[in-house]
Amino acid sequence: MPLLGFSLAALMGLLLGLLGGGGSIITVPILVYVLGFGAKESIAMGLAVVGVTSLFGAASHWRKGNVQWKAALVFGAVAMAGTYAGARLAAFISGSVQLLLFATVMLVSAGLMSRHGRKDSAPAPAPQKRSVPLMALVALGVGALTGLVGVGGGFLIVPALVLLVGLPMKQAVGTSLLVIALNSLVGFAGYLGHVDVPWGVLGLFTAISVAGILTGTWASHFVSQARLKVAFSGFLVVMGVFIFFKNWGALGLR
User: Fold this and answer.
1) What is the CA radius of gyration of the chain?
2) C-alpha angle 155/2/23, rounded to 5°?
3) DSSP secondary structure letters along 190-224
4) How far is 78 from 214, CA to CA, in rounded Å?
5) What are the residues whose beta carbons fall under 8 Å from the beta carbon of 64, sequence distance 6 or more?
6) Residues 121, 60: contact at Cβ < 8 Å?
């Protein structure tokens, strides 16, 4: 099982590099159901893996001029406050409930990704700058979700940067990876002291994921993004339903 888990770490990084988001959402299921860690440990480790991996991806986009630093720092600073609060709130929620919330995020992400994948050939909506309070509210919400369930939130951050901040899509993807990195690392810091972190496993998993994202960033020029998103959304539906089934008893409905 460890060999399979670390092989899937490479797949996670590859997907993150190919899509600019989405790959991070499979990190927690790998850690829980393949490597056998508890829910809270897996969410904390997932945040660290996603943070470091996204940072490498953001650096690759930065070299291509696709990172808007002002937007990343302003949006990221607000989101980080939400992330830290979400990580602290997680201490009062059971691991099973966290996984149920995580599964819900997977299903919502699958719907958005599938819809966006089918419309990739259509003209993108014109970016419009919105009010600062609205942008701050979205950033806080994305951050809280990141801290609570351990997802990077790229499927929410990219649309927010396009529609609320007014960034072009390529810059939104690169900037999103930097925001994800900042959010995730702050979220991981919020879990320290509450969970035991197996640093050796975390370091190896992260190193393999980084190799995956660098490969995925290079391969993104040769892969159909629309087909990949639709296929990946189907995988998220399967995994989301599986996690719901495994943790449904946490709601006391059995």
Assistant:
1) 17
2) 10
3) HHBTTB---HHHHHHHHHHHHHHHHHHHHHTTTS-
4) 28
5) 174
6) no
Distances (CA, A) of 77 to 41, 51, 81, 141, 210: 25, 15, 7, 13, 24
Find all residues with CB under 8 Å of 97, minimum gap 6, and list them: 247, 250, 251
pTM above 0.90, yes or no: no
| Amino acid letter, 44 | A
Please answer whether residues 167 and 63 qualify as being in contact, where contact means their C-beta atoms are separated by less than 8 angstroms.
Answer: no
The dihedral formed by the CA atoms of 115, 116, 120 and 121, expressed in degrees to the nearest 10: 40
CA distances from 213 to 12, 49, 91, 181, 209 (A): 8, 11, 31, 13, 6
Residue with tokens 């490498």: 56
For 180-207, the pLDDT digits (tens) are: 888 888 888 888 888 889 999 999 999 9
Tokens 């770490």, residue located: 9
